[in-house]
From TrEMBL:
This is TIR domain-containing protein. One of its GO terms (biological process) is signal transduction. Signal peptide: none annotated. Residues 1-126 form the TIR domain. It comes from Vibrio viridaestus. InterPro entries: DHS-like_NAD/FAD-binding_dom (IPR029035), TIR_dom (IPR000157), Toll_tir_struct_dom_sf (IPR035897).
Length: 453
């Protein structure tokens, strides 16, 4: 049987051991790495190197997860497998590194605890009568492998939390469930206020109902709309923004309650190091107040927390529900504000994010990976990460283009995970957003259990 072993250079020793065992069993094995030449098509080169193989063995490790070459090679092999089902893919786990979700559909062999026994198991799986077993996984086994991969990530996060080096990075998704308007709804509401004012000030024959038609017809970007609003609402811009944020009197939701549980000081461990939020609202602070958890909302230079306070960094600005809005409050809402934020690498918010990305394990929830500034900071931190391991985690809903899991869904998942890996992120996929609170509570519980051991 012809076998191709894909591995990172640092895992060459393991590839050699597996090669020796499989050659002894009578297989024809290729495992030497190859070098890309300038201008070569990666997918084409992968296909050329693997098209004659009956089995593709992928060595999954911390090294492969941090190697761009391995990330591209693994995903290219999986991509090629979406349309060609003749070859068998067998991931081999050699340490506690993250397992790419797109590989969880294949039966894998774990040799991290017992190299000799694991390689023996791999050799047995390659016997002719095991063909069906390694090619087709039952739904139950596939789900079991996914749960094992997720549990491993939860344990890593619990360890970071217990050691006091975990940062939670939050987006709008954590507050939407409580009633804070989603971004488009927020823009529409503020457009109505702007159009009403312009109609009154300039005698225009338009009313607030035209806001929806304007947004639908011209579809300007959110940042451009933000600039329209800022220019035309003037000194009332922040007041109108705060009014729109809290218009439905939002209070709490299960995700916010789970974050509070995660932030609760631990008896036998260190507390959550910090929270970075891109949200303007104060729902998180209000929920922490209800549980008497000490915190400090930080929204500009010069604001400092005491050692017993959880710092909550509002890197895009902060608008609490009540009280006077500081005259110098700066919110990242419009195009000009975003540009200023982007071009100032030494702004307090950029420095805070880089510091936490470089020093801590970060868990991202309730946001996307489309923000150019966030992507830039992730890329910078990953480049400065000498070991290149995937130190951060990103909870995201599994892509679902259609009602059935077709090739397009699998492709979307593969591409998104590949992109995240290159930014230093390990994905935690969920089928429904309702799973997020459970994951947060599992992390808190696992961290507490570490303190009792």
């Amino acid at each position: 049987m012809k076998i191709f072993i894909s591995h990172s250079q640092q895992d060459r020793q393991y590839a050699g051991l597996i090669n020796d065992a499989l050659v002894s069993a009578g297989h024809d094995v290729q495992y030497d790495t190859w070098t890309m030449r300038t201008g070569e098509n990666y997918l084409k080169r992968i296909e050329e190197n693997t098209k004659t193989a009956d089995v593709l063995i992928l060595l999954v490790s911390r090294n492969s997860a941090s190697s761009k070459t391995s990330i591209h090679e693994f995903s290219a092999i999986a991509l090629n497998d979406l349309s060609k089902q003749e070859q068998r893919i067998i991931p081999v786990i050699i340490d506690k590194g993250p397992i790419p979700t797109y590989l969880s559909q294949y039966m894998y062999v774990d040799i991290s605890q017992d190299i000799t026994g694991g390689i023996r198991r791999l050799t047995e799986l390659l016997e002719p009568d095991k063909l069906i077993e390694t090619t087709v996984l039952s739904d139950a086994l596939r789900e079991e492998q996914r749960e094992e991969a997720r549990d491993k990530k939860i344990k890593d996060l619990a360890k970071a939390l217990h050691e006091g080096r975990m940062t939670l990075v939050c987006g709008a998704g954590i507050s939407v469930g409580a009633g804070v308007p989603a971004w488009n709804d927020l823009l529409i509401h503020m457009l109505r206020a702007m159009i009403t004012r312009m109609s009154a000030d300039h005698g225009l024959e338009i009313d607030s109902g035209d806001a929806d038609r304007f947004h639908t017809k011209y579809s300007p970007s959110a940042l451009v709309v933000g600039k329209y609003l800022k220019n035309n609402l003037g000194k009332d811009f922040l007041k109108e923004l705060r009014h729109s944020l809290y218009i439905s009197n939002p209070e709490t939701c299960e995700v916010l309650e789970a974050i509070v549980d995660l932030a609760r000081p631990q008896r036998d461990g260190n507390p959550l190091d910090s929270i970075i939020t891109f949200n303007f609202d104060a729902l998180l602070e209000e929920n922490l107040d209800l549980q008497n958890i000490k915190y400090r909302a930080i929204y500009g230079e010069g604001v400092r927390n005491s050692p017993n306070e959880l710092p909550i960094y509002h890197v895009h600005g902060y608008l609490p529900r009540k009280g006077k809005i500081p005259p110098n409050m700066d919110v990242i809402f419009s195009e000009d504000a975003y540009h200023s934020h982007f071009i100032e690498p030494f702004s307090w918010s950029n420095l805070i994010q880089l510091n936490k990305l470089s020093q801590n394990t970060c868990l991202f929830i309730g946001l996307s990976l489309t923000d150019p500034n966030l992507r830039r900071l992730l890329d910078v931190a990953n480049r400065k990460n000498t070991d290149k391991h995937l130190n951060h985690y990103f909870i995201k809903k599994t892509p679902s283009v259609s009602k059935t899991r077709d090739t397009m869904d699998k492709l979307a998942l593969l591409l998104e995970e590949q992109d995240a890996n290159e930014l230093g992120l390990s994905m935690i996929w969920v089928e429904h957003y309702s799973e997020v609170p459970s994951i947060l509570r599992q992390i808190a519980l696992a961290s507490a259990m570490r303190g009792r051991q």
